[in-house]
Specification:
It contains 15 helices and eight strands. By secondary structure, it is mostly helical. Strand 6 and strand 7 form a beta hairpin. 32% of the residues are buried.
């Protein structure tokens, strides 16, 4: 088939509601004009998050497109083990320089980390197909071969592990030469390492952010605090900055999740529950007795069929990452205030917020609501935070720590200043793995310069 240009099969992805999984949103891969059912079946079994499903849809779609125009190049026995090598290199380095892009893939180069994530997903899905549907001896170029048969076929000929797909190659030119002889699919390893300086929110701007950034311009001269300030977003910011919450986590807070600390009546005790598995007590409307259920069930039965925000899409969506839960019976974690004054401030503002600001919304248990009386999603808070940052003369840039995630990074820096040990830091930041906190506790360049610059070694300096 040398010189023959095959027709590219296009794929696209859409978000649909899966009736099999209580109408939860899921990614659907469309190949040509038909949905790829096997990938949907895979998602139903694995129950991934929507963001994880996007990775699988992206790489499986690209692999099917790539097979449609380049698969025929590897049908000879001597070349079959090189197919994953070629696909991985096209994915990593792009296809614009590939024979003037006769295949019309038009892929741009991808970062090494992104490429690894995609290939890992492809290998995992391919192995699942092989285990579920067994091996196939169908010729992958046969006109009746399904996409599933093709993926299983090529995975059988390319049994490398993910780690083998990315090892020991110096540069792209050398990898091309080696790929003719080597079975293993190798990829350039990026040897450049950068010092990861902390992306923490600058401490000198914290007060300005809270009391100038979140001011309501229309009511800036109003003596009523709940009118003058955006209490909702100040409360969320306090939880992220002084309580180490990810920006999406406080959005799952319900009005009944904030208590007065039994050990200090001036301090707020905040428990953030798992959005679907978190426990909730309710009074049975028929018997009057108190019962417990999970939040997904409560929302469906008593809140007009609503779903946890982790399963919503668009501006209502708020993600949830695996957390170290401190209250097993509640499926919740406690917020540990790094400064108790922040916990006291939170309790005072919380009472004002509930009394004067939060709209009365039947069947809406979430604490933080929009003006339209809908639960606040991550995008809504992120937009408000960016506006607050700009209002105090800063730019919301991740590398400067002036995004919502910079608040959690600041908490990690305070742990360093307090010389908090790794285990306590893990619990305080509710990490499943103690090493996960290291990215938040990186040194600042100024700290390195100050520490190593205090040593006097040169005693005698000649005059010039």
């Amino acid at each position: 088939m040398v010189g023959e240009v095959l027709s590219l099969i296009y794929t696209e992805s859409v978000i649909v509601k899966d009736r099999i999984r209580s109408c939860n949103p899921t990614m659907l891969l469309i190949v040509g004009s038909e949905p790829y059912e096997k990938l949907l079946e895979f998602f139903r079994e694995k129950c991934f998050s929507l963001s994880s499903e996007r990775i699988y849809v992206q790489v499986v779609g690209k692999f099917i497109e790539w097979l449609s125009v380049r698969g025929s190049e590897f049908t000879e026995l001597s070349k079959r083990t090189l197919l994953f090598t070629a696909f991985t290199h096209d994915l990593r380095f792009g296809t614009y320089l590939l024979e003037n892009e006769v295949h019309q893939l038009c892929w741009k180069p991808k970062k090494d980390t992104n490429c690894k994530r995609l290939i890992k997903a492809l290998v995992y899905f391919s192995d699942w197909l092989s285990l579920r549907y067994g091996s196939t001896m169908i010729n992958p170029i046969h006109q009746n071969a399904s996409y599933t048969d093709q993926i299983i076929f090529w995975r059988a000929w390319n049994k490398q592990k993910v780690t083998s797909l990315f090892a020991h190659i110096k540069d792209r030119d050398k990898s091309r030469d080696k790929s003719k002889q080597a079975r293993r699919n190798n990829l350039t390893t990026n040897r450049i390492k950068y010092f990861e300086e902390t992306k923490a929110f600058p401490t000198e701007y914290i007060d300005q952010l809270l009391w100038k950034g979140f001011i309501n311009p229309k009511f800036k001269n109003d003596s009523r605090i709940w009118k003058k300030y955006n209490l909702r977003d100040i409360l969320i910011t306090l939880l992220c900055l002084y309580g180490a919450c990810r920006a999406s986590e406080p959005l799952h807070l319900w009005t009944d999740d904030v208590y007065v600390d039994p050990d200090d009546s001036s301090l707020a005790l905040v428990l953030i529950h798992h959005p679907s598995d978190g426990s909730i007590n309710y009074q049975d409307p028929l018997t009057g007795t108190y019962k417990a259920t999970n939040r997904a069930d409560f929302l469906f039965r008593f809140c007009d069929g609503r779903r946890p925000l982790a399963y919503e899409t668009g501006r209502r969506h708020s993600g949830w990452k695996g957390c170290l839960l401190t209250h097993r019976n509640l499926n919740a974690f406690k917020v540990f205030w790094i400064d108790k004054e922040a916990g006291r401030l939170f309790l005072d503002l919380w009472r004002l917020y509930i009394l004067h600001v939060r709209p009365v919304t039947p069947h809406m248990p979430w604490a933080f609501m929009t003006k339209e009386m809908q639960p606040l999603g991550f995008e809504g808070f992120d937009d408000s935070f960016r506006s607050a940052v700009k209002r105090i003369g800063l730019k919301p840039i991740k590398s400067l720590g002036t995004t919502t995630h910079g608040l959690r990074h600041r908490y990690g820096q305070w742990l360093n200043e307090l010389n908090v040990c790794e285990k306590i830091g893990q619990v305080a930041m509710h990490h499943l793995n103690p090493t996960s906190q290291l990215i938040y506790r990186q040194l600042e360049l100024s700290e390195v310069a100050e520490t190593v610059g205090n040593f006097s070694l040169i005693k005698n300096i000649p005059e010039f």
